[in-house]
Amino acid sequence: MGDYRGLNVRRDRGGCCPPMDLMRSEAMQLVRIIVPVESAHLTLSYLGDLGLFQFKDLNADKSPFQRTYANQIKRCGEMARKLRLFKEQMAKAGISHSEMAMTQTRIDFDEMEIKLGELEAELIEVNSNNEKLQRSYNELLEYMLVLKKAGEFFYSAQSSATAQQREIDARQTGDGSLDSPLLLEQEMLTDPSKQVKLGFVSGLVPKEKAMAFERILFRATRGNMYLRQAAVDDPVIDPISREKIAKNVFVVFYSGERAKTKILKICEAFGANRYPFTDDIGKQMQMISEVSGKITELKTTIDLGTLHRDNILKNISYQFEQWNNLVRTEKAIYHTLNMLSLDVTKKCLVAEGWSPVFATSQIQDALQRATYDSNSQVGSIFQVLHTKESPPTYFQTNKFTSAFQEIVDAYGIAKYQEANPGVYTIITFPFLFAVMFGDWGHGMCLLLATLMLIFREKKLSSQKLGDIMEMMFGGRYVILMMALFSIYTGLIYNEFFSVPFEMFGQSAYACRDPSCRDATTEGLVKVREAYQFGVDPKWHGSRSELPFLNSLKMKMSILLGVAQMNLGIILSYFNAKFFSNSINTWYQFIPQLIFLNSLFGYLSLLIIVKWCTGSQADLYHVMIYMFLSPTDDLGENQLFPGQKTLQLVLLFLALVSVPWMLFPKPILLKKQHNERHQGQSYTMLHNTEESLEIEEDHDSHDHEEFEFSEVFVHQLIHTIEFVLGAVSNTASYLRLWALSLAHSELSSVFYEKVLLLAWGFNNIAILIIGIVVFVCATIGVLLVMETLSAFLHALRLHWVEFQNKFYEGDGYKFAPFAFALLADEED
């Protein structure tokens, strides 16, 4: 690979910032910077603000933990964790940090670390206390529900027991009968000491588990229990899970300690919260009063704690962005410092990296300012290195050109200073899209949607958008150009939602007599000059519309395709000229240009001649028999004198250009390689250490083995690919015709079979339904699906048919150390 310093001289321009030039990437240089340790941090801070220097990792053999500033990065990571905690807490509390005013005071990094630690400890303590209080508060709320519901159970049970006792007493005063209780029952009722004492457990159980809870209790106690449940009206917050759950209050009556043990284990298994309860009504009222008081106190305490926490978070929110930016930049600085190598004296750091040539003075100014501001006794050294390593690719783009450049970069990053397809993509991409999408009504819909994004771009750029919306917003200027070109091609096709208009004068055709009211060419005669711009409106709806438009669009697609492929081949010449590669000029550019134009350039010429002369010649027949029977007479298919001779010459040139592409280039490359190494065999010996270092550094580049077989096979593949690709790529451009026809026919179907059909019923309801269906079909199919389809096909034509003629795309992107890029990387 050649020395890239020679290329830098050609692009050297005066001034601090050159004008935007997308044709070739910016001239780059490999730079070594030697920085004193005391000013290293400030130097990188200024270079990060500048954002025009890409550092190389000089410590690639070391692990992250073995590097010089590993501890500082660990500190920054811990501070970033604390800031993420604050951000989560502010989000939960509904406090926005982006809308708060930031205080632009200078913050010391060490002081901020201490402050963040104190705030984290305070916030964790407040949250911990708040959680404990909230749990107690939720438990008391559940306890209050148990006291009220269980109290109702006991009150109703005691009321029914009192009524039963009165009934028994009334029976005892009368005569004994068969209905009177037995002596044992009577004795038990009258003697409380002989009554069986039942225990009970009360609490709340989730409503969805209530039925299973009851069945397990019944089976575990073998039916020796009595369960009462009552649903709570509103869901309650569970003290443990802190989620709103619908629950039932339950009271389980049992007899014996074994039954109690089983019931307690079942309650624990079902997540039932148990609360103490007494059957004494007086004590019940006292407990309700106490619990109510505690709930009020806890509510007040929780509110005060929440207010205190919100005050802490509000104070944090005022400086959150500033803290976050500082931590982010400090981490980036120390991460970059770890890429620098420490010299043997451990007093200087050595950095190497790439920078644009135009940024040299800006970088040197930043180094001088850092030396002055850090009070360093020794200044930084800026040294430009000579290298054969391929530099990164850097294009200066703005918000309009960046989206088009991204389309090219998605295929592959341009090799250093090769011709950039992005320049032409700005025009050709939306134009080819519009050829497939041509309808000025649909184009205006796209334009209105895009203008809304452009007019609100300041507001939308600061918001978090969804994935699809983010892509649309990023490509808003691409969509704008697509919409404008769609309006242009729509006017040429004379289609407004498939309806033609006489916008540029009257039609050239008129009815011969009143009987030709049906829209057919039969009975139509040409009464005036041709329609001034675009397709004559009389063609729409005629019997000849489809054959005419098919022929027009198919031939137009071939012309556009051949023109764009020729542009790609011409750009390969400018690449060869720029890199001083005469072999590519003579043995790649010229034969490729001859081969393509001998076949499809000639076809394009025939199309234009046929249009101009109005000939009825069959171009399919001409092209096929140009290969099968080149010496036969053309007969009625002859378009101009000397056509047969021209065809023989072009066919001969096409056949000659194939070996022209295949054989000379590998042979000449082998010859160049031998001459270069033969000259190097007799060079003088060098004794200096610097010369030895250079020789070791570039030995792998200068003495690579030249495998003639590999080069020849590669050239053979390239030749076959171009010859076959010339045919397949030209055929691929017929997608312009196919998609344009599909879009036009779909639009026509929706208009005639939906809108006009609904209009013909003379019914308001049917008309409204028809309009709704037409609008939905237009938006969903024509403005969304068809837009996406045409976009992808235009993308394919640029990536495959256009860029493979000249674009290598094997470079790598310039990735400078820039603080402005940190926010995007974090998102």
UniProtKB/TrEMBL annotation:
Job description of the protein: Essential component of the vacuolar proton pump (V-ATPase), a multimeric enzyme that catalyzes the translocation of protons across the membranes. Required for assembly and activity of the V-ATPase.
Gene Ontology terms: biological process: vacuolar acidification
Alphabetically ordered keywords of this record: Coiled coil, Hydrogen ion transport, Ion transport, Membrane, Transmembrane, Transmembrane helix, Transport
UniProt KW Methyltransferase keyword: no
Compartments where located: Membrane
Family in the record: Belongs to the V-ATPase 116 kDa subunit family.
Name of the protein described by the UniProt record: V-type proton ATPase subunit a
Coiled-coil segments on the chain, per record: 102-136
Membrane topology: Multi-pass membrane protein
Major subcellular location class: membrane
UniProt keyword Transmembrane helix present: yes
Gene Ontology molecular-function annotations: ATPase binding; proton-transporting ATPase activity, rotational mechanism
InterPro entries documented for this protein: V-ATPase_116kDa_su, V-type_ATPase_116kDa_su_euka
Transmembrane region(s): 431-455, 476-493, 556-574, 586-609, 645-663, 764-785
CC terms in the record's Gene Ontology section: vacuolar proton-transporting V-type ATPase, V0 domain
